[in-house]
Design brief:
With 280 residues, this protein is of the alpha/beta class. It is built from nine helices and nine strands. The structure holds pyridoxal-5'-phosphate.
């Protein structure tokens, strides 16, 4: 398993040039770069089946559209981890479904498959694992349960672009997954989200839902970019990227902060013995 560290802002280094080019071409809001991004995302993430990536305004909207497109009957139970971002159960509720909370594994903080098994009822229709803090959930037993009980699996990958489980990218196990590109996510594009969907018909519906949303005005996009620029300026300053003298201090603090987490992962692997070989 490869986990993704969540520390700091991650943007492509030439983001200012890219934004300037889009502005010059009057493509700050819409343009061919959205489809290009989706294609590239698919290429990097991979996955079997007739998969499709659809951009959305937020990661949470991608979840909402996936839930709607899967046509899950109203009132159905959806299993969510007790430790996740609050919008995840809230969006399932807004979609007319009933979030059922299950506990997390105390060693990994991700959804405990045994707790999932206990929570399944005749009314359960889907499992929604969150790959929390860049750490993949234990997907083999979760997928086995889904197959046994004929449940959909929608992976929350807001924290985990780049994480893998037994060599397979998080987000490519289930029927769909969603990603967030807000600040402090593995890829920061100053906001936005993306739905990864396996089935072509479901993907078409997700695309139609996303496409029917109103596009933001250019003014709104400019204000988002300004806010993002200020945030990244602040973080860069703190990180010392522009002041090499501070970079070493930053790296030292970063390593010290990461150490307990590394210990946790080693401990989790030793105890559980169910994850694949350690990857650096
Ligand atoms: C675990 C998790 N899931 C989902 C989301 C939702 O992503 P977005 O804010 O892009 O809607 C977040 C956002 O912080 C998150 O941390």
């Amino acid at each position: 398993m490869a986990a993704i560290c969540r520390f700091g802002m991650r943007m492509v280094p030439n983001i200012s040039d890219i934004i300037a080019q889009c502005r010059n071409k009057k493509q700050l809001v819409q343009g061919p770069h959205i489809a290009e991004f989706e294609q590239e995302f698919l290429r990097v993430l991979g996955g079997r089946g007739r998969v499709r990536a659809v951009s959305t305004e937020y990661g949470r909207m991608a979840l909402y559209f996936i839930l709607k497109a899967l046509n899950i009957p109203a009132g159905s139970e959806i299993i969510v981890p007790a430790l996740t971002f609050w919008v995840v159960p809230e969006i399932t509720r807004v979609a007319g479904l009933k979030p059922v909370f299950v506990d997390v594994d105390p060693h990994t903080f991700t959804m405990d498959p045994k707790a999932v098994e206990r929570a399944i009822t005749p009314n359960t229709r889907a499992i929604l694992p969150t790959h929390l803090y860049g750490m993949s959930c234990d997907m083999a037993p979760i997928m086995a349960l889904a197959r046994k009980h004929n449940l959909k699996v929608i992976e929350d990958c807001a924290h985990s672009l780049g994480a893998t489980y037994n060599g397979q990218p998080a987000g490519t196990f289930g029927d769909g997954s969603f990603f967030s590109f807000q600040g402090f996510k593995p890829l920061n594009t100053y906001g936005g989200g993306l739905a990864w969907v396996r089935d072509a018909d479901v993907a078409k519906k997700v695309w139609e839902f996303a496409d029917s949303e109103e596009w933001p005005s250019e003014k709104r996009v400019e204000s988002i970019l300004r806010a993002g620029w200020w945030q990244s300026t602040f973080i860069r300053e703190r990180a010392g990227r522009d002041r090499p003298g501070r970079a070493q201090t930053f790296a030292r603090v970063h390593r010290a902060n990461a150490a307990p987490r590394e210990g946790l992962r080693r401990d989790a692997r030793r105890r559980a013995g169910r994850y694949g070989p350690a990857r650096s």
